[in-house]
Specification:
single chain; alpha+beta; Threonyl-tRNA Synthetase, Chain A, domain 2; 4 strands; transmembrane helix; transmembrane; membrane
């Protein structure tokens, strides 16, 4: 049986060329949804400021820029911005690892990152797996994910009842002090409340 991490698979490159088409427009929009929304907000703000200045309303730029720049002047605000930046960074890097390794379907579809949130030690990604991919694949490529995310290590947890859901903890600072089931599947036992129950039904 071939290993799940086929580092020395001589057919890997041929399979990539034949079986991994480029993602479509909808897929690209979904992967860059946060950046697109931020860009639209920035463009809208710039238009409002330019219009206000053109009408002599010089107080408008200050009123609009205040809520944006004031949080960056306090430690808590800078920490919030930095941690959410790492969330965006890690989301794209996990997607890149899935595309560059065998963690995608024959049609080139990679697992769906439902959301990603900051934790005390890094980030935590909640992922919906495609057919043909399982939690063991993410564990096998844990070193690649950690390197791509500029992290110290990663930890993969499988949903106890629904194997199509996994969480990936990205550890980038200090020792991971979260409880084994904290923020993932309740207490880790069958029947407990879990955040993805509303998605899984």
């Amino acid at each position: 049986m071939l290993p799940r991490n086929p580092r020395h698979n001589p057919y890997a490159e041929a399979e990539r060329l034949l079986l991994a088409p480029a993602p479509g427009l909808v897929t690209r929009l979904w992967r860059w949804r946060t950046e697109i929304v931020l860009l639209m907000l920035a463009a809208g703000t710039a238009v409002v400021i330019a219009t206000a200045v053109g009408r002599g309303m010089w107080w408008a730029p200050v009123a609009l820029a205040g809520p944006v720049f004031v949080p960056a002047t306090v430690p808590a605000g800078r920490k919030w911005i930095l941690r959410h930046f790492w969330c965006l960074f890690s989301r794209h890097r996990i997607q890149r690892v899935c595309a560059e390794t065998s963690m995608h379907t024959r049609e080139g579809r990679i697992p769906l990152i439902l959301w990603i949130t900051p934790t005390g030690s890094g980030e935590r990604a909640f992922i919906l797996l495609r057919a043909g991919i399982c939690a063991d694949d993410f564990e096998a490529f844990g070193a690649e994910i950690a390197a791509a995310c500029c992290a110290a290590s990663v930890r993969v947890r499988r949903h106890p009842d629904r194997a199509q859901f996994v969480t990936v903890d990205i550890v980038r600072r200090g020792a991971e002090d979260d409880q084994p089931g904290a923020g993932t599947w309740g207490d880790g036992e069958h029947g407990g409340k879990r955040p993805l129950e509303r998605l899984a039904g």
